[in-house]
Amino acid sequence: MSRSEEWRYMDTLRPPVYVCLRRKPSISDGVYHPMAIDGRIDKEDWEHAPWSERFVDIEGAPRKPTEYPLTRFKMMYDDEHLYIGAELVESKIWGTLHTKNSTMYHENDFEVFLNPDGSRHHYYELELNCLNTIWELLLYKPYKDGYSIENPYNLVGLRTAVYVDGITNSPQTICNKWCVEMAFPLGELVQFDSLRKRTALAGDVWRVNFSRVQYELDVVVDKESSELCYEKVPNKPEANIVWAPTGVIDIHRPEKWGFMFFSSQQELPGGESELASTMAEYLEQQIAMERILDTIYYDQREFYKLHEAFASSFAQLYPALEAFAHSDLLKKYDLSMPVITSMSERAKTHGDRHRSYVPNLDPDDDGDGGDGDPNVLLSPRAKEIQRLEASGLFKNYMASVQSTTQQWNVTHDGRLWKSVN
Question: Which Pfam family is one of this chain's hits (predicted)?
């Protein structure tokens, strides 16, 4: 079968990695005092935190090497909070939305995406504009995977601020930039980490991304006030400027988001040394395993378009091993051959009443014993699963790849997780 052309390009883009240093305590008494969140990221608190790489077009530099006004961020953390600061260079600073949880991306904004457990599901999104108006959402699944959203989804302890170097909504003023500063309570972010179920610690790795939505503006005369104002250029699409390019005009591709490494250090050299050790210990291999599973996931999507079902084995999806794009990674990291299994294979016949759910919805359902009543009618969905599996196809699937130290899995709807022994 042919590979996913979409993924063929996406796979060439390497997610960036950011070293998140610890915040420095007060020099005078060595204590962490509450930090003022005022939008100023030029204050002493931020001096030691490294800047990220310059943001690029969401499609990636190879496909769209456009250079946009400088956008970059910093992060740091302490025992209570994750701090994020961002700088957005801009000569025309414009915003009109004042109501919390307004649909923000219809105007210029800055967006934060946090997926602490790296599952690509159940992730948090924050958008805010130059007026410090925020919009928060929870996405149970990305749009491409049959999305499910809780809108709005507001954190209780989130603090945000915006600093404008210039004058907002003033065409007569040539502005320099606007900056955002955020403090996320780590305790509240635990709800998005089904892997660890605790606050972040040094050594943890999260998947994150940042996006700047930018429209081209015209200067026009307001009909009511007769004053100059900004207006979006008609029929001109927005620019999507991001830290980690996804390769497509869709920020909701968590598989291409960047990695954030929590360091125990307060200076970058020490943090980079810790990251190097983590890469050598497991993260480099993990990234390779994710690439393998993502290739299977995207190729299964192509298979589904042709057969309206998924391949039931690695051999069926790739009739010859050389057809699999990452045989080299399997050899390099001494990985097992990927395995594809049905998510429903424990419920193939009604005569077997032993049921399995992902996730386990009711502990009493597992192991209720008995042979069941073969005369009870199967549901239409169960019949469809039986029909497909009898013909060698799957209605859903789980793909797994394993090394001597870790196993990673992905499902048909893009959920990724590490098996815990």
Answer: CBM9_1
Q: Of 44-53, 83-92, 203-212, 323-332, which gets the smallest average pLDDT?
A: 323-332
Half-sphere exposure of residue 384: CA atoms within 13 angstroms, side-chain side: 8
- Residue 399 tokens read as 């793909």
Show the beta-strand stretches assigned E in 71-204. Answer: 71-77, 81-89, 109-115, 123-128, 134-141, 148-150, 159-165, 177-185
Tell me what the mean pLDDT of segment 13-32 comes to: 94
47-63: burial string, b at 16+ Cβ within 10 Å, e else: ebbbebeebbbbbbeee
> Which contacts of 158-162 are long-range, i.e. CB under 8 A and separated by 24 or more positions?
158/126, 158/134, 158/182, 158/183, 158/184, 158/185, 158/188, 159/37, 159/183, 160/37, 160/126, 160/128, 160/132, 160/134, 161/37, 161/38, 161/39, 161/132, 162/39, 162/128, 162/129, 162/130, 162/131, 162/132
CATH number of 16-266: 3.20.20.70, 1.25.40.10, 2.60.40.1190, 3.30.70.141? Answer: 2.60.40.1190
Mean pLDDT to the nearest integer, 149-154: 98
Its pTM stands at 0.90
The pairing of strands 339-341 and 258-262 is unpaired
Where are the chain's structural domains?
Answer: 16-266, 283-418
What are the tens digits of pLDDT across the range 127-140?
999 999 999 999 99
Omega before residue 152 within 30° of 0, cis: yes
d(CA 94, CA 303): 45
One-letter amino acid at 335 equals L
Residue 348 has pLDDT above 70, yes or no: no
Q: What is the pLDDT of residues 195-248, one digit of tens each?
A: 999 999 999 999 999 999 999 999 999 999 999 999 999 999 999 999 999 999
Which residues have C-beta within 8 Å of that of residue 7, sequence separation ≥ 6? 294, 295, 298, 299
